[in-house]
Each structure stands twice: as structure tokens, then as C-alpha cells.
């Protein structure tokens, strides 16, 4: 096809996933929404609108919904549908048709394109193995161009670095030197030909969250949450409250479990309900103390996008202990047979039945709230290494519980954070039993640094 046009989107955010030619005389440019579930600050959506305007065609938005997203349950699906409904309502208000398909993603989008007069498809970027495969499968099946637009990190992955980075210290300077160039606001574009009344149909009507959920055959074993409601407006409410509090003393307060001094924005980033660029600009421009702004941006940009770097450049091993560095592999092999001070079954761990009241409180908060303060996440994970008989089973158990209960599980941050427990993006420490050279976190250290009893009481309510 002709050279890929920018349409006011930074060139580094664009990639054509197949070599198909633009369909001459087609009526529609489709935005296949999957990762960026929002109607604003969405470069993929704006790109599709501008491309449709350039071709004098209609832009329509299509979302493909499946029942069996890996490891997702009712808790995750309810949040997803809440955000999706808001996005659909706002997209419709912008004069654009929103269509919900139900079934295998690549097959459904390819079938829709074939049955309708579509000239090109735009999608947002994915990072995990199965999400990347859905896009590559679609690229093979489509007879029109499939253009991917990066919109869920501040700095596009390959632009930040052309290799897998070893740690935050090796990517920090690279990525922070590019943030200003990639964090600018995405200008909204009005469609020249509003499409909301065109005669195209989907598989489901998105009239209500419960109506869609009732039609899905999903795992209903984990109950949804009342505290976190999906959608861009809810994400912005959390962000606004966080900014008004001057980031709650984030640099130090985020580590105090009893204070819960975090933004609670990670579930919304996970589902693409808010742009990381919007968050970056608002935090950077806030009146909060410099140390708190810098501390938050370190987590939002450096740490979060280090995780995306890892998953992108280690597609075959990001969910395996094979991904940790050699020193960590060696120390685990050396200490594999060390006697563990405690041993609990996975069921006992899941139900918070250990001899550590702080750990049990963390597990309770995970189950009931789908969230944990930063330090307690790390402590919770490190203790599982001492509660199970092998590193492999500790890893599998940690990832299982993480992905089952956390609202922001099953994404690059989750895979990276769980492997951090086993040495990823870390260095070797003083050698100890069980942990070897892996970083340790003990109950004694927790008690010395933080008000653990206050945390336990907060969780008890």
C-alpha cells in the first residue's frame, strides 16, 4: 500500500502488521478496539477517524468480546464491561458507530471486515503472547491493511530501547529522555461523516453491564468489587482525588501499608480506561512536592514501562522462571533443598491460614479488594517462597493468586513483579537459607519499618 501516513500521530507509534493493500472505494475504516478502552486520549481511535476523513469514508469502532480470556473471572469482566459501556456511549456521542462482536477475536474481526465494505483496520497495541497472536492471526486473515497504534505506554517500547533491559537503572535515562516528546495530548478529531446511524450490526447490544455479563460464560468464582468501577470517568475521579491530596505524600506514604497512600489507578491502566500520557502530564504539572511527583512518575513510566520492555523482548519466557538472570537461577539451584520453616497448601494460602497475621491480612485484602499497597505486595510474594517446598511451586502459586484476585493481574506489570520476587530486575544480596542471594523480606523487617498492627486493623475494618 502507499506509505503509511502519520495523521498527526507520532510515527514511532505506528506499525503496519500485514502487507495488504488499501481497498479502493471501501466505505469504512474500522478501529478494532481491544486494549485502549476509552473514547478520549486514544491515539488509535483518532488515527482511525483521521484516516476515514482522509478517505472520505466512515469510521466505526468494533470490539470483540470473548468468554475465555486467560485467567479472567467475573471480577475482571464486570470492570471491563463497565469501562467498555462508558467508552461505547462516549464514542456514540462523538457520532461514531460502536459494534460489539462476541466470539474468537481474529475470526470475528476478519469475518466482519469480509462481510462489510471495509477498506482498512486500525488497532491498538498488545504485549502479552496471546494478545499478540490474536493480532498476528487477524493480520493474516484480513484482506485489508491492519495498522497498529501504540497508546498504552508513554514511550513506544522499541523507541525506549531496542533490547531487553536488565533493570530500572539501565532504562531510566533512556526512557525519561524521551518522555516529553511522547506525552503530548492527543487532539480529538471530528468525523467528517458521522457513522452512528449506518446499518451495521453486531452480536450483542451494550445496553447494560448486567445484560452483557448474563450472556457470557465466564468463571464466576471470584465476586466483583464495589470499590472499583470501570471507566474513564471513574479513573479520572481517582486521579483527581489523588492530585488534590498532593499525591498523599507518595514518595514515602506509598510504602506505609496502613495509609493506603496510592492512586488506585493501576486497574484503569490495565484495561486501557485512561491514558498513561494523561496521568503523566497531570502529575507532572501538579502542585505536589517534587519528590512525590518524581516518585510517582518513576513508577508510572520507568517501572511500568520496564515491565512492558521485559514482556515484549522475552515473549517466550516472561511467565516462566527461565526469565530470571543467571545468578538467580544458580542460587535457587543451590538452595532448592533448604528446609523451609513453614509449609502450607495452596488452599491454606488462598484462605489466609498461615501463622503470620500480617500475611493473612494481605491475602484477605487481595481476595476482598483486589488490591494491595506496594510494600505489602512485595512482602506477600516473598513469604510464599518460604511457605512452599520448591521455587517453581512458589512461583506458580504466586502467579495464580496474583492473576485470580488482583484487578490489574495478567498484564506486563504482573508478570514482571512476580518474577522480581525471584531476582528479575534485581541484584544478588547476602546469602541466606531458602532465599540464597534473592532479596529477603521478613516479618521482623516489616514490623521495624511500618505500623503493621494498624494495617491489620484497617483490613479487618
Search tags:
single chain, about 450 residues, alpha/beta, Rossmann fold, Serine Threonine Protein Phosphatase 5, Tetratricopeptide repeat, DNA Cyclobutane Dipyrimidine Photolyase, subunit A, domain 3, 3 domains, 6-stranded mixed beta sheet, 21 helices, about 45% helix
Topology:
Blueprint: E1 14-16, E2 28-33, H1 43-55, E3 58-65, H2 74-93, E4 97-102, H3 105-115, E5 118-124, H4 129-141, E6 146-149, H5 157-160, H6 168-176, H7 179-182, H8 209-215, H9 232-244, H10 250-253, H11 266-270, H12 276-284, H13 290-313, H14 326-335, H15 346-350, H16 357-369, H17 374-387, H18 391-405, H19 412-420, H20 443-449, H21 452-460
Parallel strand pairs: 2-3, 2-5, 3-4, 5-6
Antiparallel strand pairs: 1-6
Helix pairs in contact: 2-8, 3-4, 6-13, 12-13, 13-19, 16-21, 17-18, 18-19
Cofactor: FAD; (6R)-5,10-methylene-5,6,7,8-tetrahydrofolate
Domain Photolyase/cryptochrome alpha/beta: 27-157
Enzyme class: lyase
Can you describe what's shown?
It holds the Pfam family DNA_photolyase. Keywords: DNA damage, DNA repair, DNA-binding, FAD, Flavoprotein, Lyase. It comes from Neolewinella xylanilytica. The protein has three domains: 1-151, Rossmann fold; 153-185 and 232-313, Serine Threonine Protein Phosphatase 5, Tetratricopeptide repeat, CATH 1.25.40; 321-460, DNA Cyclobutane Dipyrimidine Photolyase, subunit A, domain 3. Strand 5, helix 4 and strand 6 form a beta-alpha-beta unit. The mean pLDDT is 96. Helix 16 packs parallel to helix 21. It has helices spanning 43-55, 74-93, 105-115, 129-141, 157-160, 168-176, 179-182, 209-215, 232-244, 250-253, 266-270, 276-284, 290-313, 326-335, 346-350, 357-369, 374-387, 391-405, 412-420, 443-449, 452-460; strands spanning 14-16, 28-33, 58-65, 97-102, 118-124, 146-149. It is globular, with a radius of gyration of 23 Å. The protein is α/β, with parallel strands linked by helices and 461 residues long. Helices cover 47% and strands 7% of the residues. Strands 1-6-5-2-3-4 form a six-stranded mixed β-sheet, sandwiched between helices.
